């Protein structure tokens, strides 16, 4: 397809996109780097004539595109599919068998071709998950299914919005090679907000700044472009301002030491053991990063701490000085914990306003069901301004782009300054500046001990200087599933 954008101006309630002139010539694949805003989501909607919220309002021209021949992979599309599948599985659950939409079914549903489905399962390292329920997959597993599903549509043009988000190092590497192979037969638009995610094989790069197409260039020109240095300088000052806000409202609380202890932890499902023999203690004031490949059980482990994993009562856990299951209420525990994760993002399906989402952090609720105090509203309003979302205070959470939703959920987790701040791949969907802002702020929160961090990210670049303790899951050939290796300066 020869796709040409001319004098395009696009505006939705929450984002804007502007392109004076851009030609994606037939056979070309492009990398798109965006400093700010959900450019990938809007491009995907424009090229497929679909909209997740209200129809997109735009002026100018887009020529040469056949929307039925374009497929999009994005975090928002993954979220929407998951919601549909949960609804569908729920509505079928009145029967005697446990309904589940399998990974195989999700891919097969697009091509109705057994051989192709098996080939895609193999190419994307999903064969072992073929009969797993789509809704129970880990984040990285789900991302790979979304890509397989898009390829199964057999359209000649793919828009991949942050295709590497949530993938572990190994799968990021294999995906790059896989996309290169695909690019020989179809056109791909890879939209990223991390400079290291632009595949080396990409020849053309479009740079978007503040939602506007700033320039187009070759990959080698991109490699020497100064934009990253400029952005890094810009984000430093903003983070200081955010920390000043957190400091202004800081309060102190005393907690038992250790904060959390898991003895011989084990999580298993009928068909597999995820991990076993996990012994882990979180001492007061120590920050931890949880590491390991997709599907090893990182989110599961954090769910045991947070208390929303069904197997948290079958494990031997002490938290905040109490044995779990000894009569404590889940709210007693949760009031000391702030949490950001893809699972929470998925659960946050109520339709409250952007401001209320942040306020709901004071009550640990999904949605807001109590009348907040004036001070709580004032603090949440300050947060919104800091995130450049003041104008969206009354906009419904569901109307916002995925990255904006994620920023709100991060603010929701931090706003009450919890003892434990659990950040399970917090940056998913954030643009470059949003990610820098949050990363710098977390670094400062950790350094000043404003909260104790439990942190998951697959990117080496996301490492926080203040985190020196690691729990890493490694596959154990001698036993089924993973075991955990803990390391850090105060541990032997
Ligand atoms: N109800 C369930 N039944 C069977 N398997 C499940 C169920 N729920 C989760 N799993 C599996 O448990 C494993 C661990 O999932 P988890 O989300 O903890 O992984 P993770 O380490 O956080 O992965 P990622 O890096 O992709 O986020 C995955 O393989 C997932 O498919």
Automatic annotation (TrEMBL):
Alphabetical list of SUPFAM superfamilies matching this protein: P-loop containing nucleoside triphosphate hydrolases
InterPro entries the record matches: AAA+_ATPase, ABC_transporter-like_ATP-bd, ECF_ABC_transporter_ATP-bd, P-loop_NTPase
Pfam families (alphabetical): ABC_tran
Domain named ABC transporter: residues: 10-235, 260-487
Domain of life: Bacteria
Keywords for this protein: ATP-binding, Nucleotide-binding, Transport
Protein name: ABC transporter
Annotated source species: Shewanella litoralis
